[in-house]
Write a structure and sequence with these properties.
There is one protein chain. Helix 1 crosses helix 3 and helix 9 crosses helix 10. The protein has 20 helices and twelve strands. The protein is of the alpha/beta class and 439 residues long.
Length: 439
């Protein structure tokens, strides 16, 4: 008989996989259902958000150095510490006992004894936990807020310490999520009624119609609403790019780097399922995600194509959306893994790739047509600096004003770009511009 995987065991497996391959694997947690899946996701994302601080504590309470510690034991210990310090629903005794039993099960009795000794010492000191005390200011901040030192240095220089602290604190909080109601399958009145009947607390956005802020996705998943196409998870800031593209019924539109297809579906909704949309992505695996989502959400005018847009030719169309690959520094609350996967070198590499993609996208836009460039980054090198460089080369494009589309608080002073900051706007960090090709 196959042994049932617990939330903690699945979390250890997921954390081990991340440490080994420097990426997450959703299939590990997808083996769980309901509350177990939610709990495991909380462990994995929460520990990745607090990893530097947790490892600092391990270094203070363990005779074995963090870097020399057995990987599986280390991740069980991280879970025990996270349970003790950050999981309000777990009693202290249960946090210790669960970690000890897990260490015994996965590593033997000696592992269990060592786990018990470390966590008992931490438990005794909980009213007065040690704080990072490094002389190097960047290392001190990076350890306290569990962000990489290169990013801390950038943000402190750009925002100042106080604002940088607020940004990092926001990134370490459990995120809330936005649902975008799919107008192809339902309407606002019926969707609000569904939320109320399901006893799901929600807050309707006053920025864009059809967006609802919720604190959990578990009930929505259990209702099967995503498979039925009633709503999709999409941050309010991610909706800005389709909005400023303003696709019209009957137009021909490209959605480039389109996976997993949430913007594609929104474009289709805005076009009332009239016209044509080509959703393009280079990844075969991610293309299948777009195809599945397009089917579930009833986006009938969408065709899906796997292609490298920098090397293949496309016909000219009315409107092109390029949501470019980026470092993702605007979504570190939801994608805590990214902070440990990115480097300053990545920033340079993404910037170069973004230039290539912008160049390709520009050559798909007919005269008088529109091009939207967007990212989920808050780094200037990936955002306005790319657009300035683009406009130096392409004098047949010009920036459009966005004041008719978006709230003033997210716009630049000249109204020709938007940038959200997580700690300021209480949503993901996104950037975007609308470029029009001159007639």
């Amino acid at each position: 008989m196959e042994q049932t995987l617990t939330a903690r065991q699945a979390s250890v497996n997921a954390l081990n996989y991340f440490e080994e391959f420097k990426k997450t694997d959703s299939k590990i947690l997808n083996k769980l259902e309901g509350q177990d899946r939610q709990q495991a996701n909380e462990y994995v994302q929460g520990i990745l958000r607090r990893r530097s601080y947790l490892d600092f504590l391990i270094s203070r309470y363990s005779a074995v150095a963090v870097d020399e510690m057995n990987l599986q034991f280390k991740n069980i210990l991280r879970i025990g510490l996270y349970d003790l310090l950050f999981m309000d629903g777990t009693p202290d005794y249960a946090a210790v006992n669960e970690a000890v039993e897990l260490a015994k099960t996965m590593g033997g009795s000696r592992s269990g004894d060592l786990m018990n000794a470390i966590l008992r010492r931490v438990q005794r000191d909980m009213p007065n936990m040690p704080r990072p005390d490094f002389e190097d200011r960047n290392k001190l901040i990076a350890t306290t807020f569990s962000h990489p030192e290169w990013l801390v240095k950038r943000w402190v220089a750009r925002f100042g310490e106080r604002e940088a602290f607020k940004l990092m604190q926001h990134n370490n909080q459990n995120p809330s999520y936005y649902l975008r109601m799919n107008g192809l399958k339902t309407n606002d009145q019926n969707f609000r009624l569904r939320l109320s009947k399901a006893d799901i607390d929600f807050e309707e956005s006053n920025w864009l119609p059809g967006y609802y802020k919720v604190s959990t996705l578990q009930k929505i998943r259990s209702k099967g609403w995503f498979q039925k196409g009633f709503a999709q998870v999409q941050d309010i800031a991610a909706g800005f790019a389709p909005i400023i593209l303003n696709p019209q019924p009957g137009e021909d539109v490209y959605d480039l780097c389109a996976a997993p297809g949430t913007k594609t579906i929104m474009l289709c909704d805005l076009m009332n399922n009239q016209g044509s949309i080509l959703a393009v992505d280079i990844s075969a695996e991610r293309i299948s995600m777009i195809a599945e989502n397009v089917t579930n959400y009833g986006a009938e005018i969408v065709k899906v194509q796997r292609a490298d847009i920098t090397s293949e030719r496309f016909k000219l169309v009315d409107a092109v959306l390029l949501d470019a690959p980026c470092t993702g520094t605007g979504v570190l609350s939801k994608r805590a893994d990214l902070r440990w996967r990115r480097s300053e070198k990545d920033l340079e590499e993404f910037s170069s790739q973004q230039d290539e993609l912008l160049d390709a996208a520009a050559n798909m836009v007919k005269r008088g047509g529109r091009l939207v460039y967007s990212t989920c980054s808050i780094e200037p090198e990936e955002n306005m600096e790319r657009i300035r460089k683009f406009l130096e080369t392409y004098d047949n494009f010009e920036l459009e004003n966005l004041e008719d589309y978006l709230p003033e608080e997210v716009l630049a002073d000249d109204g020709k770009s938007y940038q959200t900051l997580p700690h300021v706007h209480k949503c993901d960090g996104h950037f975007g511009v609308l470029l029009r090709r001159k007639v």
